[in-house]
User: Fold this.
Amino acid sequence: MSVVNQMLKELDKRQQQHGFSTVAQSQLPPERAKSAWKLLVIGLLLGALMVIAGWWLLTTAATQPVIPVEVETANAPTPVKAANVANPSSAQTLVAETPASATTPIQPLVSVKGTPAAKTLAAKARHAEYAENIVDDTARPQIDATAVEQSTGSPSTKLAPAAVVSTAETDAKTSETRSVNPATPSATVATNKLATKLEITEVELTPAQLAAKQLKHAKDLLAEGNNQAALQPLQQALQYDASLHEARRQLAALYYAQGKLDDAAAVLQMGVANYPQNEEFWLLLARVQIARLQWQQADASLAHIADTSSFASEKWLAKIRIAQQQQDWPQVALGYQQLLSQAPEDGRWLFGYAHALDAQGNYVAAIPEYQKALTMSGLSVDARAYIENRLLQIGESR
Assistant:
């Protein structure tokens, strides 16, 4: 609008200089003067809009991308054929059959000099030319400098190595407008060198290692107080390695604590069947059999434990319990005598021996053993009270 106002001011000055501004305005009617001013303003506005539109069109055309155009000439190039010669030494030479009038295809590039698109295409063309030259250098067969005659025997046009090289360069230049991404051998080798190689080796654990792993898992569960969940890893440990005695003891103890005596007996019977020299399995099996009131089977199991074994004391305690249930007091007295031979200062064993004599009615032998037991350590308060009462009863009865 500032341009329009400036033009109106200049027009007023010119009219005033010629001296007909006032006369013209006085001669024209007021309504016609107003309409003339409106037409003038509208015309100026339209002109300004046309100038702006033309400037916008020019700017848009300048930023359009460059479009490559391929133009093929009327005369196509004649290919160079390899001569089919019987002589092996001449098999690497070529015969040129290109007429003099033949021209290579020309592919002009329509571009705007200096635009970003032209620069990008030029860079791609240089990359394509460099890549194809590498391929040509590695794949192009060696060409003899001497020409080879055609098979008809007539002389043929000789093709010098320089001509062949120029033809290859021309072919490379004609492909400048094409998008080329060659996979050259050197690029492949570089890629293979940079590629990292990841190897996964499977490590197979031995059955013993698998069993130890399951046993450790079971111990962790037992430490957390999850006894029920510990059963499965203990069973799997024995399946991997039946010689893992610790897993068998733990499994039998869990079954025994849960009152599953049949399962505990089955686990231990499998152990003594495979390892009869393991006296601990015989002792544990005897305890399970005693809990199942299988007295004879328990006594037979205890017979596999030697009197000099480290489990001898526990063996005789189990035999004493079996004899007490059967009221076999001479066998009970024998059991306590075996225990006294291993620990003669333990008052508990002497008290048990005196009670076995008392149960047989042998009071004469029982009284001194009771009295001696009172002087020894290891007796509980209840045991001492029982001995004193029993001595009074025996004395009164006598």
Remarks:
- The first strand starts at residue 81 and ends at 82.
- The first helix runs from residue 2 to 18.
- The chain has 17 helices and two strands.
